[in-house]
Amino acid sequence: EDSHGKIWLGTRNGISIYDESSGVFVPAGSYLEIRDFDFFNNNRVYCMIEDQRGNIWAGTGNGIFIVNPETKSTSEIRAGGDNLMSVSNNLIYSLLEDGNGDIWIATSNGLNRFDPEENRIHMYFRDPVSSNTLCDNYTVSLSEDTDGNIWIGTSTGVNKFSKKDSVYSWYSISHGLPSNVVYDIIKDGNGNIWFSTGGGLAMKNPDDAAEEPFLIIDELRGREFNIKAVFRADDGEMFFGGIDGMVSFYPDSLKENTYIPPVRITSFDKETAGKRLRVNVYEEEVILSYKDYSFTIEFSALDYTDPSKNLYSYQMEGISDRWVEIGNRHFVHFTNLSPGKYTFRVKGTNNDGVWNTEGASMRITIQPPW
């Protein structure tokens, strides 16, 4: 819908505009009485936006078409040539006008930015020898957060591009995304950024630290969504289309689990002379012989909303001060520790990744043979 209330429809064969008088969609060229609309014959339209000057930009499989409904002027942008107004590829998946009035263009081979003051297009590509770069040239979706950062969905994760310092951040499944294939990105009414992917739906608060995990909607884990199938209604309801249908919800209705779970050491088993023996975990200190050549410690974060999502991290002081993240595994095994004094510490989360940083601890002494 444009600023005048007209409904524009992008199809596999061009653009149509809804004619309120007849109640049907009419080809845009006929509706606007613009004869020079041949560009759209047999052209599939992937995206459309209206810029601050009232121009309608349409991204297609054969470049970009721009039309001003008031002046009836038209122009085209395509790949190729050495001019400053060409794009890196003609397959245009997404268009975004940022707060500065620049137009960002996601293509199947590179990211582009049109600067209206310079009247030129800048191109951005993945640099395999740099860490400050696009994660993939195959860019399919774009969004801008409240701080002016540009989020770019690709086939190998998502980038956040900071316009202030020209720095890229790269997020993937290792940061909590349900899939590296990011089909669409959209901002909700609270400023949170939502990602529809090849393996589910995820959300991130852009103000969170980079290492903060994405919130994954468990009910939609594993569901494959689709490109150009997102919408936010005026009342805040979010719609996401996928290969198995559509889902919709109000983000405010999704409550994060903020409960900080107690963490307990639940069992301690030692192996001596081939036998497995249980040790009392309620003692202040566990005393072992040098003959107790291996032992296993089990622990639990006491939140039962979805225990398979509870995460753990442990430290064995006396071996290393480093915390070791072990995912949802709730035990750790040690073998052939030298005689000495140790302190075992463990931290855990609930199903939404809220940590109990105090955790639980146990002192362990392994006695020497003399």
TrEMBL record:
InterPro entries in the record: Ig-like_fold, Reg_prop, WD40/YVTN_repeat-like_dom_sf, Y_Y_Y
Domain Two component regulator three Y: 303-367
Residues in the signal sequence: none
Molecular function GO labels: phosphorelay sensor kinase activity
Keywords: Phosphoprotein
PANTHER family the record matches: HYBRID SIGNAL TRANSDUCTION HISTIDINE KINASE C, TWO-COMPONENT HISTIDINE KINASE
Protein's UniProt name: Two component regulator three Y domain-containing protein
Species in which this protein is naturally found: marine sediment metagenome
